[in-house]
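Hi Q.,

Before the meeting this afternoon, I wanted you to have the adenosine-3',5'-cyclic-monophosphate prediction in hand. No need to reply - just skim if you have a minute. The sequence and ligand are here:
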Amino acid sequence: MQTVGGPVVSERTFVMLKPSAVERGLMGEIISRFERKGLKVVAMKLIRMRREDAERLYAVHRGKHFYEQLVSTIAGRRVVVMVLEGRSAISVVRKMLGATDPVNAEPGTIRGDFGLDITDNLVHASDSAESYEYEHRIFFSESDLVA
Ligand code: CMP
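Predicted structure with the ligand bound:
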Protein backbone atom coordinates (compact mmCIF):
# COMPACT_ATOMS: atom_id res chain seq x y z
CA MET A 1 0.00 0.00 0.00
CA GLN A 2 1.23 3.47 -0.84
CA THR A 3 1.78 5.87 2.02
CA VAL A 4 0.27 9.28 1.38
CA GLY A 5 1.59 12.36 3.19
CA GLY A 6 4.59 10.71 4.77
CA PRO A 7 4.85 8.74 7.99
CA VAL A 8 2.68 9.58 10.98
CA VAL A 9 5.35 11.36 12.95
CA SER A 10 4.56 14.00 15.51
CA GLU A 11 6.91 16.95 15.41
CA ARG A 12 7.19 20.34 17.03
CA THR A 13 7.43 23.82 15.59
CA PHE A 14 8.13 27.27 16.98
CA VAL A 15 5.57 30.00 16.31
CA MET A 16 5.63 33.71 17.12
CA LEU A 17 2.59 35.98 16.90
CA LYS A 18 4.13 39.27 15.80
CA PRO A 19 3.30 42.63 17.43
CA SER A 20 0.49 43.52 15.04
CA ALA A 21 -1.31 40.24 15.79
CA VAL A 22 -1.15 41.04 19.52
CA GLU A 23 -2.04 44.74 19.16
CA ARG A 24 -4.92 44.10 16.76
CA GLY A 25 -6.50 41.53 19.08
CA LEU A 26 -5.92 38.60 16.72
CA MET A 27 -4.22 36.28 19.23
CA GLY A 28 -7.38 34.28 19.96
CA GLU A 29 -8.34 33.97 16.29
CA ILE A 30 -4.90 32.72 15.27
CA ILE A 31 -4.36 30.34 18.20
CA SER A 32 -7.89 29.03 17.67
CA ARG A 33 -7.05 28.13 14.06
CA PHE A 34 -4.06 26.10 15.22
CA GLU A 35 -6.15 24.34 17.88
CA ARG A 36 -9.01 23.60 15.49
CA LYS A 37 -6.52 22.06 13.06
CA GLY A 38 -5.53 19.65 15.84
CA LEU A 39 -2.19 21.09 16.82
CA LYS A 40 -1.35 20.90 20.50
CA VAL A 41 0.08 23.90 22.37
CA VAL A 42 3.00 22.58 24.43
CA ALA A 43 4.40 25.97 25.48
CA MET A 44 3.20 29.56 25.18
CA LYS A 45 3.99 32.97 26.65
CA LEU A 46 3.40 36.67 26.02
CA ILE A 47 6.66 38.61 26.20
CA ARG A 48 8.13 41.98 25.37
CA MET A 49 10.71 41.09 22.73
CA ARG A 50 14.26 42.00 23.72
CA ARG A 51 16.33 43.40 20.89
CA GLU A 52 19.07 40.80 21.38
CA ASP A 53 16.52 37.99 21.13
CA ALA A 54 15.04 39.52 17.98
CA GLU A 55 18.56 39.61 16.50
CA ARG A 56 19.09 35.99 17.53
CA LEU A 57 15.77 34.87 16.07
CA TYR A 58 16.48 36.51 12.72
CA ALA A 59 20.26 35.87 12.64
CA VAL A 60 19.88 33.88 9.41
CA HIS A 61 18.69 37.08 7.69
CA ARG A 62 21.58 39.27 8.90
CA GLY A 63 23.00 41.20 5.95
CA LYS A 64 19.78 41.14 3.94
CA HIS A 65 18.22 44.47 2.97
CA PHE A 66 15.17 43.89 5.19
CA TYR A 67 17.05 42.65 8.30
CA GLU A 68 17.21 45.93 10.22
CA GLN A 69 13.54 46.69 9.65
CA LEU A 70 12.62 43.12 10.61
CA VAL A 71 14.42 43.36 13.95
CA SER A 72 13.28 46.89 14.80
CA THR A 73 9.66 46.02 13.99
CA ILE A 74 9.48 43.46 16.79
CA ALA A 75 12.09 44.74 19.29
CA GLY A 76 10.54 46.26 22.40
CA ARG A 77 7.00 45.20 21.45
CA ARG A 78 4.75 42.44 22.72
CA VAL A 79 4.75 39.10 20.93
CA VAL A 80 3.46 35.64 21.78
CA VAL A 81 5.95 32.80 21.43
CA MET A 82 4.78 29.20 21.43
CA VAL A 83 5.64 25.63 20.60
CA LEU A 84 3.04 23.61 18.73
CA GLU A 85 3.05 19.85 18.30
CA GLY A 86 1.35 17.57 15.80
CA ARG A 87 1.77 15.45 12.71
CA SER A 88 4.07 17.27 10.25
CA ALA A 89 3.55 20.40 12.37
CA ILE A 90 6.30 22.38 10.61
CA SER A 91 4.85 22.19 7.11
CA VAL A 92 1.23 22.25 8.30
CA VAL A 93 1.76 25.52 10.17
CA ARG A 94 3.68 27.10 7.27
CA LYS A 95 0.74 26.26 4.98
CA MET A 96 -1.70 27.77 7.45
CA LEU A 97 0.33 31.00 7.51
CA GLY A 98 0.35 31.41 3.73
CA ALA A 99 2.98 33.10 1.56
CA THR A 100 5.55 35.32 3.29
CA ASP A 101 4.22 38.38 1.48
CA PRO A 102 0.56 38.72 2.53
CA VAL A 103 -0.21 40.22 -0.88
CA ASN A 104 0.48 36.78 -2.35
CA ALA A 105 -1.07 34.75 0.49
CA GLU A 106 -4.21 32.82 -0.44
CA PRO A 107 -7.50 33.68 1.24
CA GLY A 108 -8.09 31.15 4.00
CA THR A 109 -4.52 31.44 5.24
CA ILE A 110 -3.70 33.67 8.22
CA ARG A 111 -1.65 36.16 6.21
CA GLY A 112 -4.15 35.96 3.37
CA ASP A 113 -7.05 36.82 5.66
CA PHE A 114 -5.55 39.41 8.00
CA GLY A 115 -2.47 41.17 6.61
CA LEU A 116 -0.86 43.32 3.95
CA ASP A 117 2.55 44.18 5.43
CA ILE A 118 5.49 41.88 4.55
CA THR A 119 7.63 42.79 7.59
CA ASP A 120 4.82 42.67 10.12
CA ASN A 121 3.17 39.70 8.45
CA LEU A 122 1.39 38.59 11.64
CA VAL A 123 3.05 35.26 12.36
CA HIS A 124 6.48 33.64 12.12
CA ALA A 125 6.98 29.88 12.14
CA SER A 126 10.00 27.60 11.82
CA ASP A 127 10.76 26.45 8.28
CA SER A 128 12.68 23.28 9.24
CA ALA A 129 13.49 20.99 12.15
CA GLU A 130 16.86 22.75 12.47
CA SER A 131 15.17 26.18 12.70
CA TYR A 132 12.79 24.81 15.33
CA GLU A 133 15.68 23.55 17.45
CA TYR A 134 17.46 26.90 17.21
CA GLU A 135 14.43 29.19 17.56
CA HIS A 136 12.55 27.63 20.44
CA ARG A 137 15.68 27.54 22.61
CA ILE A 138 15.92 31.35 22.46
CA PHE A 139 12.68 31.59 24.45
CA PHE A 140 12.08 28.27 26.18
CA SER A 141 13.97 25.75 28.24
CA GLU A 142 13.10 22.05 27.97
CA SER A 143 11.19 22.16 31.26
CA ASP A 144 8.81 24.78 29.75
CA LEU A 145 7.55 22.23 27.22
CA VAL A 146 4.49 20.59 28.71
CA ALA A 147 3.77 17.45 26.72
P1 CMP B 1 9.09 35.50 8.92
O1 CMP B 1 8.34 34.24 8.73
O2 CMP B 1 9.05 36.16 10.25
O3 CMP B 1 10.63 35.20 8.58
C1 CMP B 1 11.49 36.19 8.13
C2 CMP B 1 10.79 37.47 7.80
O4 CMP B 1 11.50 38.32 6.94
C3 CMP B 1 9.52 37.18 7.02
O5 CMP B 1 8.59 36.56 7.84
C4 CMP B 1 9.16 38.57 6.54
O6 CMP B 1 8.53 39.33 7.56
C5 CMP B 1 10.54 39.16 6.30
N1 CMP B 1 10.88 39.19 4.87
C6 CMP B 1 11.18 38.15 4.09
N2 CMP B 1 11.45 38.58 2.83
C7 CMP B 1 11.31 39.92 2.85
C8 CMP B 1 11.44 40.92 1.87
N3 CMP B 1 11.78 40.63 0.61
N4 CMP B 1 11.23 42.20 2.23
C9 CMP B 1 10.91 42.49 3.51
N5 CMP B 1 10.76 41.57 4.49
C10 CMP B 1 10.95 40.30 4.16
